[in-house]
Amino acid sequence: MPKLTEIINLPDEMATLVIGQKMAGIAKAPLVVFLEGDLGAGKTTLVRGFLHGLGHEGIVKSPTYTLVETYTLPTATIYHFDLYRLSDPEELEFIGIRDYFEDSAIVLIEWPMKGEGFLPEADIRLCLATHEEAEGRILSIEFLTESGVAFKKGFKKK
Ligand SMILES: Nc1ncnc2c1ncn2[C@@H]1O[C@H](COP(=O)(O)OP(=O)(O)OP(=O)(O)O)[C@@H](O)[C@H]1O
Ligand SMILES: [Mg+2]
Fold first, then answer.
1. Which positions ≥6 away from 29 have C-beta within 8 Å?
2. In this structure, what CATH number is given to the domain that contains residue 105?
3. For residue 88, how far is its CA from the centre of ligand 1 (angstroms)?
4. Is residue 97 within 8 Å of 8, Cβ to Cβ?
5. What is the mean pLDDT of residues 142-146?
6. Is 9 domain-assigned?
7. Owning domain of residue 88
8. Residue 158 has pLDDT above 70, yes or no
């Protein structure tokens, strides 16, 4: 499978929300999305845009302490993980991590490296980075599986 990458400039918070929303219009369950980037890079902001795009109107809490937040929406069940505080990836076994990756689910995971060895492969890998001397973020998107590549085709058309 060839690795396909897309690079997108996100000049402000609104741009991060809008790209999340755009992805929501294309994403189809089952889908696994890894979100990488430093603390404060904008991962949760992108998920917020994604959930709003799927019609979620309430707040989107960062799951830093709860590990996972669940959103049952008309088109899919969304599981938003933040594994930052996970001390041992094995803990994922105890919460029954496997059960989350169901056919009707879109799973978005912040800090996936903290769960290495206990997560399935990602269909799409998003990486947010800050600029050295400017506001804004750079987003790179890697489409890694067949589902990821199908997603890219939809993304291009929009
Ligand atoms: N494109 C952007 N340009 C400038 N600021 C942004 C951009 N996208 C998001 N931000 C801001 O970055 C800050 C941190 O965002 P967020 O909480 O989404 O980060 P995070 O990557 O989830 O962090 P953590 O790893 O701590 O969970 C927020 O104040 C948000 O408004
Ligand atoms: Mg976050």
1. 75, 76, 77, 103, 104, 105, 106
2. 3.40.50.300
3. 25
4. no
5. 95
6. no
7. 23-134+144-157
8. no
- Phi, psi for 17 (deg, rounded to 5): -65, -40
Ligand 1 lined by 15 (C-beta under 6 Å): yes
6 lies in some domain = no
Q: Does any domain span residue 99? A: yes
Give the mean pLDDT of the chain: 95
H/E run at residue 17:
helix 13-24
Distance (Å) from CA 41 to ligand 1 centroid: 5
Rounded CA-CA distance 79/62 in Å is: 12
Q: Which atom of ligand 1 is nearest to the CA of 39?
A: 25
What's the average model confidence in pLDDT over 77-84?
98
Which two structure tokens, joined as six digits, stand for 145? 């599986």
Structural domain contains residue 13: no
CB of residue 20 inside a 6 A radius of ligand 1: no
Q: Which of the ligands is closest to the CA of residue 39?
A: 1
Count of H helices and E strands in the chain?
4, 7
* Ligand 1 neighbourhood includes 123 CB (under 6 angstroms): no
